[in-house]
């Protein structure tokens, strides 16, 4: 056991090094990348070659996942490094380990009777797809649900064949559409009251509705402009149900991991922004006006607070009895602080930050994604408020 832990830690370090090299290449193309409205497959081929997809595969099956407590920080550091040079690629990448946690496959190794055998088989299959180079993503969100999965209106009708169902519904924010091979979603199975998890094979599926999936609206984000977070309409589209119904409700720390992973992306963006601004401002550091000096000092303060919140989230998840509260607080704090830092940077840098040749306006919009990511603002604040009394 000790030997396999050490090997996994070594593997994780080498993947992080590979990602840092990849990010250094991407950084040289930052301006061109920030103007993109689409993802480029070659970036994800290179990301796969770093070993990143193994973050969502347990050590026993050839990956580096040793449980959330041990693996969360390493994965977050990879995403943070990637986000320092390409926000959209990093956000799409963050979905891969988040999704395999969300399903419960990573955190619930054993199902009770009568699901044990099928769960085991499904987990093994899913991990093998990742080892084979398949990127996972999610298209759970539905307009009007405010990120609350219990409000899904999507339905899934059993076909009578194994775990195959037919999905009907409107889904949006499918980040990585066209890049992801497999995608999870949620829907209410016909004849049941509670929503459950389903997944679908997106490889070579046409987007014209001819096989049940139609592009309803292409992603047109002001920020995270290239994530291809498209809206899709599903009509009788074949999906497979989680082999352990309701498993996602039973994970020990639901949401803690992906809150950290989404936050890591924004931490990476803010670091790049502060570093770039500091270099740019060197030449006018002695001639800045009082307001600019004050705003810059606040950038320093808020940048520091972001680092503390990030570290606090990671540390909380590393505790044996970690709950959701700290990652939730950290994600909301970083979302607010990141927006504030970026606004201040733009003011100090000056009107040039409005130019599409300047990186700051893009970063300002990119960091705004964090507050909308699961759980989005309204839901997050409700949960934080409620948690205050529960604690
Ligand atoms: C950059 C980015 C990437 C994302 N990637 C993913 C992803 O990969 N997969 C994924 O599943 N989710 C993804 N999300 C979505 C995210 O997880 C949240 O679900 C989403 O941001 C919630 O949006 P919202 O708060 O605007 O809620 P919404 O439910 O969309 O809208 C909030 C409010 O708007 C009104 N409203 C909007 N549309 C309607 C409607 N049709 N009917 C009634 N009222 C309506 C309602 O008052 C509603 O309460 C992404 C989000 C962002 C910003």
Can you put this structure into words, describing what you see?
- By secondary structure, the chain is of the alpha+beta class.
- The chain has three domains: 2-131, Acyl-CoA dehydrogenase/oxidase, N-terminal domain (Butyryl-Coa Dehydrogenase, subunit A, domain 1, Orthogonal Bundle), CATH 1.10.540; 136-249, Butyryl-CoA Dehydrogenase, subunit A, domain 2 (Beta Barrel); 253-390, Butyryl-CoA Dehydrogenase, subunit A, domain 3 (Up-down Bundle).
- 50% of the residues lie in helices and 13% in strands.
- It is built from twelve helices and seven strands.
- The chain has helices at residues 2-27, 30-34, 41-50, 68-83, 87-102, 116-131, 256-281, 290-318, 325-349, 360-367, 369-372, 377-390, and strands at residues 136-138, 155-158, 164-174, 182-189, 196-201, 213-217, 230-241.
- It has a five-stranded mixed β-barrel.
- Strand 2 (155-158) and strand 3 (164-174) form a beta hairpin.
- Helix 7 (256-281) runs parallel beside helix 9, helix 9 (325-349) packs antiparallel against helix 10 (360-367) and helix 9 packs across helix 12 (377-390).
- It is globular and about 75 Å long.
- The mean pLDDT is 95.
- Flavin-adenine dinucleotide binds next to strand 1, strand 3 and helix 11.
